[in-house]
Structure formats: structure tokens, C-alpha cells
Design a protein that fits this description.
It is a single chain. The protein has a single domain, classed as Glucose-6-phosphate isomerase like protein, domain 1 (Rossmann fold, 3-Layer(aba) Sandwich), CATH 3.40.50. It is 56% helix and 16% strand. It is built from five helices and three strands, in the order ααβαβαβα. The chain has a three-stranded parallel β-sheet with strand order 1-2-3, with helices on both faces. Strand 2, helix 4 and strand 3 form a beta-alpha-beta unit.
Length: 110
């Protein structure tokens, strides 16, 4: 979650590089899917979250830009937008997220 009180509490107690990892450790269950997004693939807090997901037995998907960075290598499935322009990568990510949400909704609705 990006809930400001959760992020602030974890950041103050454990460091901001752990804001996602701590949440995955608390809420993630084996077989869940951890979905990480970074335009550079170098965001330390997002990478730590995906590493926590691996330790917890979660499936790991990364939506990345540029060369995918460490985040792409930490994922089981990487969807990479190989472009250096952050706005272009974000535009493609936004479109991909809409498509993914639609596919999940269709699957759940039967």
C-alpha cells in the first residue's frame, strides 16, 4: 500500500528502503502475486519488496523500463519497456496496467 501513515511508520522504524518489503512480509502469502513497477528498475525499496516476496513464496512480476535493472532480474516475469524516456515508459506502463486489470477482471468474472 502507499497509505501515507503506513509508509511513514515503516520508514521511520525500518528505513524507507523497507517500506514495501515489510508490507509484503506482513501481508503476502505463498502463491500470491507481487507486482512491482519501476521505470528504471533500480528503485531500492521496490527491489527489496520483490526480494521479500521471493522469500515468502510469492510469484513475482516486474513492470520495468530501460534495461530492467536489478528489479527485472529479481522477477519471475519481467514486462520491460526498453526506452530511456521516463514519460514514454510511464505511458506504456499505464496502458499495460489497464490491459492487465481488464484481463484479471475477465478471468475473475468468468
Amino acid at each position: 500500500t502507499a497509505d501515507s501513515s503506513v509508509v511513514t511508520a515503516i520508514g521511520n522504524d525500518y528505513g524507507f528502503d523497507q517500506i514495501f518489503a515489510r508490507q509484503v512480509e506482513a501481508l503476502g502469502r505463498q502463491g500470491d502475486i507481487a507486482f512491482a513497477i519501476s521505470t528504471s528498475g533500480k528503485s531500492a525499496n521496490v527491489i527489496a519488496g520483490l526480494e521479500a516476496a521471493e522469500r515468502g513464496g510469492l510469484r513475482r512480476i516486474a513492470l520495468t523500463g530501460r534495461d530492467g535493472g536489478l528489479l527485472g532480474r529479481a522477477a519471475e516475469l519481467q514486462i520491460n519497456v526498453p526506452h530511456d524516456s521516463v514519460p514514454r515508459v510511464q505511458e506504456v506502463h499505464r496502458t499495460l496496467l489497464h490491459v492487465i486489470c481488464e484481463l484479471v477482471e475477465r478471468e475473475l468474472a468468468g
